[in-house]
Amino acid sequence: MGKRLFDLFFALLGLILLSGILLLCLLIASIDTQSFGLFVQDRIGQYGKTFRIYKIKSMNGVTQKVTPFGRFLRASKLDEFPQLLNIIFGQMSFVGPRPDIPGYADDLPEQDRLLLNLKPGLTGLASLKYRNEEQVLAMQSNPLHYNDTVIWPDKVRLNNWYAQHRTFAMDLTILCYTFLPFLPFDVEGYVGVKDL
Question: How much is the pTM?
Answer without folding.
Answer: 0.89
